[in-house]
Amino acid sequence: MGLKNFLREKGFIEDDSKNKSDKNAQSTGSQTSLSEVVPTFFPLNSNVITSTPSSNDTESEPSFVTPLAKSSNETVQPDPAFVKFFEDELVKANLPGPDYFEFRQLLIKTQQKMATKGVAAPEVVLQAVLMSFEAQEISPAKLVEAARHYKDIIKQKNDDFLKGASTEKNNQLQKRQNVLQAHNDNIKKIQQQLQQLELQRQQLESSLNKEKTQMDVDKTLGQEGIEKIEKAERLISSAHSYIQSTIDDDIKRLQSV
Question: What are the b/e assignments for 127-153, b being 16+ CB within 10 Å?
Answer without folding.
Answer: ebbbeebeeeebebebbbebbeebbeb
